[in-house]
Amino acid sequence: MGKVQSVALPSANDKAAALALTPVSRETEARLDRYVSLLVEWQAKTNLVAPSTLSHLWTRHVADSLQLLDLASSAKIWVDLGSGGGFPGVVLACALAETPGANVHLVERNAKKAAFLREAVRITSATATVHLAGIGDIVDRIGSRVDCITARALAPLHQLVGFAEPFVRSGAKALFLKGQDVEAELTEATKYWNIEPRLHSSRTGGHGWIVELDRIERRNPSAITHGDRA
Ligand SMILES: C[S@@+](CC[C@H](N)C(=O)[O-])C[C@H]1O[C@@H](n2cnc3c(N)ncnc32)[C@H](O)[C@@H]1O
């Protein structure tokens, strides 16, 4: 007999706590409900989030993503790098679905995860474009009219800054969700880049930080090895 694994599903209490931290409209809540159900369904066959985080998915992942909206309240065109299971990109797309002209570009190189993202966009009717591609290949495809670029759990900060540089040079803001090692990552990043980061502590508690960047200039091009680029 095969072993039956019990999975702790997202709880109503967790959802209530998340929406108290980051309130949304009823329409957005309905879209997020559909997204979370789909994610739980797919999680059985594709690893979209760490299984240990499934029981507090709303606070750990959904609210973590939603908090970015207040830091770029007028942004309409977003690019989420390494979207994986859709954090923060699909959550942002659900919240922006009623905003005229809004679109979220979801960049993901893993075909299975990109398929999940397409299905999530379809069932939520969110306005988003899924790019099955490596980050280095999509800069030209997306074009320069980008208001905000995001990434979560993708790469060390100095690499993220490199990914974001062409967009920020054209006027976008970068918002990176980071963990407790943010100071060390900033120290490393400033070896390669002139940046003036603004740090926001995460509304969802823990040791999370959001790094906000409005300006990126390369400090010493020869210091960046080829392997740092996607
Ligand atoms: C650890 S997951 C994080 C996913 C999501 N952002 C989150 O916070 O839950 C990183 C994701 O980035 C994708 N990824 C890594 N490097 C990439 C690249 N160069 N281009 C596109 N996607 C990439 C991986 O396939 C993976 O799905």
Q: Care to describe what's here?
A:
The chain is 40% helix and 18% strand. The protein contains eight helices and nine strands. The model has no long low-confidence stretch (mean pLDDT 92). The chain starts with 11 loop residues before the first helix and ends in a 12-residue tail after the last strand. It has a seven-stranded mixed sheet, sandwiched between helices. It is of the alpha/beta class and 230 residues long. It has a single domain, classed as 3-Layer(aba) Sandwich (Rossmann fold). It has helices at 12-21, 26-43, 57-66, 89-95, 111-124, 135-142, 157-169, 182-192, and strands spanning 77-81, 103-108, 128-132, 148-152, 173-178, 193-195, 198-201, 209-213, 216-218. The longest helix has 18 residues, at 26-43. The site of S-adenosylmethionine has 16 residues, from strand 2. Keywords: Cytoplasm, Methyltransferase, rRNA processing, S-adenosyl-L-methionine, Transferase.
Set down the secondary structure blueprint.
Blueprint: H1 12-21, H2 26-43, H3 57-66, E1 77-81, H4 89-95, E2 103-108, H5 111-124, E3 128-132, H6 135-142, E4 148-152, H7 157-169, E5 173-178, H8 182-192, E6 193-195, E7 198-201, E8 209-213, E9 216-218
Parallel strand pairs: 1-2, 1-4, 2-3, 4-5
Antiparallel strand pairs: 5-8, 6-9, 7-8
Helix pairs in contact: 1-3, 2-4, 2-5, 7-8
The site of S-adenosylmethionine has 16 residues, from β2.
